[in-house]
Amino acid sequence: MKKQLVLGLALMLSIFAFPQKKELKVVEKAIKSNNYADAKSAIKSAEYLLSAMDDKTKAKFYFLKGKALYANGSGNDADITEALNSFKTVKDIETKSGKKVYTAQVDVLKVSMSNAFIKKASDAYERKDYTVSSINFERAFRISTIDTLYLFNSASVAVLDKNYDAALKSYKELMEIGYTGITEEFLATNVETGEVESFPNSVLRDASVTTGVFEKSRNVKTKSIAGEIAKNVALIYIELGENDKAIEAIEAAKALSPNDFNLLVSEANIRYKTGDMDKYRELIKEALNINPNNVELLFNLGVVSADENNTEAAKEYYNKAIELDPTYTKAKMNMAALILDQEQDIIDEMNGLGSSAADDKRYDELKENRQQLYKDAIPYLTSILDLEPDNLGAVKTLMNIYSAIDDMPNFKAMRARVEELENQN
What we know:
The protein is mostly helical. It folds into three domains: 13-144, Alpha Horseshoe (Serine Threonine Protein Phosphatase 5, Tetratricopeptide repeat), CATH 1.25.40.10; 184-221, no CATH class; 274-424, Tetratricopeptide repeat domain (Serine Threonine Protein Phosphatase 5, Tetratricopeptide repeat), CATH 1.25.40. The protein is 75% helix and 4% strand. The protein has helices spanning 2-32, 36-47, 55-70, 77-97, 103-126, 130-143, 148-160, 164-176, 202-210, 226-239, 243-256, 261-273, 277-290, 295-307, 311-324, 329-341, 343-351, 357-387, 392-404, 408-424, and strands at residues 184-190, 196-199, 214-221. A three-stranded antiparallel sheet has the order 2-1-3, covered by helices on one side. Strand 1 and strand 2 (196-199) form a beta hairpin. The longest helix is centred in the first third of the chain and has 31 residues, at 2-32. The chain starts with a helix and ends with a helix. The relative contact order is 0.03.
């Protein structure tokens, strides 16, 4: 009786296996004919049989499902994502069972898939379609998770796309897997030009050195970009208005790159946004210790000093920026504005004077001081126009100054220039 039962059960399973094989053959036939719509339909029909499939048949099912959904690269975003999941399931099943029948086929297919994703990502990047570029760089990473550079590229492009949630997710994943971006470069110096050139591998580099065309071969490891990733996470939090999280991320980044100039500036910008001016100045000065010739930082300190009515300090910073970069018109414009801002105090004092002889004398002194302010501002403004002839703000300011000091020839010249520039707009 037991033997009959076993025989009956075996017969029953054998009969049930026929529709499984039949459905999967339909899928295979449709895929071979590039009829991916029918292949997807047949996959859905076979799905109800999945629970009864053995591991080998399940692996085949998911392999075919992946191919049907991928559709040789023409599948939509959702289908391609599902295809990648299906190929992963194939590997999981065969790794667990120890019988790798379809894993090798998946690996072969993934090579062409990866190349296709990278090409799509690169082409989309060139035409500034950052959404498509980021998605396909991530897909290239999912195909081969050892190629972490593609996930980094995906995150970086997502930032350009202002898709901060996607960028943040990718950057955090990179941090979790300990990505540093460190690579080994194979370098040699071109004997004729004296320039250092990089080679794809040591074999090609060494062969080039042997020919005598190159010399001084060496291997150099690139710098870690772990600090840059942490910094980018902080900058994303800044964009999202989550300043506390940004500060936490920056602290983590500083632990990896303690003397990173950009980190100091990034933290300074957060402190500025939160109104912590003391910490802002402290961080900017630290950054200037690293890069003392950074005119932007000197200009920013000038702005902060001016906002706090520390005119002398502001002048010092602006003049230092101009000294370092005579073409830096922003500092020149702010310097002129700073000088002219002092006019109001003179006007207030003039209006408050009486009619005594002493007051009349003081009035004349103040009037002369006011005229001198105008004259002090002129060189900065004319210098701006030498660099930016179409700077309407500078032209208008000069026109008003020349009117105030009764310089009619220059006033008329500036007025004509204002009219010309306004007509152009």
